[in-house]
Amino acid sequence: MNCTFRCMNFLAHAYLSFEHPQILVGNMISDFVKGAAKDRYANDVRQGIMLHRNIDEYTDNHPATKNAKEIFRPYYRLYSGAIIDILYDHFLANDAELFTEASLKIFTRSVYTALEDQSAHLPERFVPVLAYMSAEDWLFHYRYTSGMQKSLRGLIRRAAYLSESDTAYQLFLDNYNALEGYYHEFFPDVKQFAKQRFNELLG
């Protein structure tokens, strides 16, 4: 999917960059870099772009994701995958094995700082996104259902054929426990996959 659909599930891609600054840049900007344009970037940034694309493909094909999509598919069809991407970030932000509220805050600030320090590698279209992301601390606010409501509204605003996000938000609330279960089925697998690809890409 291109950035019209995706580009709001930033927390997982930041976390799955394994604290490597240029991999982080590539992982975060991938949806803003089309096709062969990735070859213009420094090697480690390019590997981060590839890692992002590998993670997206793995996520789409994971059985837990396919099951989670079915909750939203009758109402949002092809957009159901993008909705699940966003909601996975909520459950990641609340994963007690990975973050406390305090450590999530530290992590999110470190992500913004690392991206700002690597600003020479950022596509022009990503620069204002980063400014808003940092100023409003999007990554931290994924922790809250209100943050998810705002993210879902943002997704629908960018969607060509959808006009409302209230149904998606209510489905999220009504199916919260099931969706959290799908996240816990999925995330250890994608973390293992991403770490393996990270090691392969850095050779």
TrEMBL record:
Biological process annotations from GO: fatty acid biosynthetic process
Any one GO molecular-function label of the UniProt entry: [acyl-carrier-protein] phosphodiesterase activity
Domain of life: Bacteria
UniProt keyword list: Hydrolase, Lipid biosynthesis, Lipid metabolism
A Pfam family matched in the record: ACP_PD
Database matches in InterPro entries: ACP_PD
PANTHER family documented for this protein: ACYL CARRIER PROTEIN PHOSPHODIESTERASE (PTHR38764)
Protein name according to UniProt: Acyl carrier protein phosphodiesterase
Organism: Flavisolibacter ginsengisoli DSM 18119
The organism's taxonomic lineage, starting at the top: Bacteria, Pseudomonadati, Bacteroidota, Chitinophagia, Chitinophagales
